[in-house]
Amino acid sequence: MGYKKETCLNCTIKSNVVSSLTEKELARLETGCLQNVFEKGELIFKEGMPANHIVYIREGFVKLSKKGIGGKDYILSIAKKGAYLGINNLNKKTRLYYTSAIALTTTELCFIDIELFGMLLKENGKFATEVIYYIFDDEMNYFDRLVNNVQQQVPGRLANTLFYFKNQVYGSNPFKMNITKVELASLIGTSRESVTRLLKEFQEEGIIRADKNAITILDEKKLKEIQQKG
């Protein structure tokens, strides 16, 4: 784990949330903010640990996972630049991390003292509103994917996840996945073998092109049909 230093006031990659703070409030935020760099595979925080910070992703990708029955890890989502992690822990009744977070790439993070973050919420209505909007958007995206995964068969879930990567995680086509096939299987709730077989079928049908971890969606119409059929 390494360190980088950039003041909150002069930060060039402020989120919409933090941009609503005044210069005085940004100076206060600076007193409770530590910047860290995590390398691929490093644990950022672990499910069940005391949650003393809100974590902001300055750069990179992070996977969020939770243990299920039998201690098996299930990937819930992939977070990217601009995301806040652990924001649900602003509720003082649940000051334990709900998930584990692991860096998928070299990742720059800001660790913001949770008490200071909470005080700024109370004092700045615009800041609080932006946080509420952020939580709403994040939960709606998660609920949409959750409902699709419950209702769809594996081909539909894979199609849904490929669109999720293209539109929400990487924002590009082609895109280079930063997760393994085992992790992809965990994300959609199936086996590695099923993911491997379906990716091969999608490629043979001209729907996608797969080159190692790089995926190109060639026929969005066909992939959308698979997604809608479930």
Could you characterize the architecture of this molecule?
- The mean pLDDT is about 85.
- The protein is built from 8 helices and 12 strands.
- The radius of gyration is 19 Å and the shape is elongated.
- It has helices spanning about 15-20, 25-30, 115-125, 125-150, 155-170, 180-190, 190-205, 220-230, and strands spanning about 1-5, 35-40, 45, 55-60, 60-65, 75-80, 85, 100-105, 105-115, 175, 210, 215.
- By secondary structure, the chain is of the alpha+beta class.
- It folds into 2 domains: about 1-145, Jelly Rolls, CATH 2.60.120.10; about 150-230, Arc Repressor Mutant, subunit A, CATH 1.10.10.10.
- It has a 5-stranded antiparallel sheet with strand order 1-2-9-4-7.
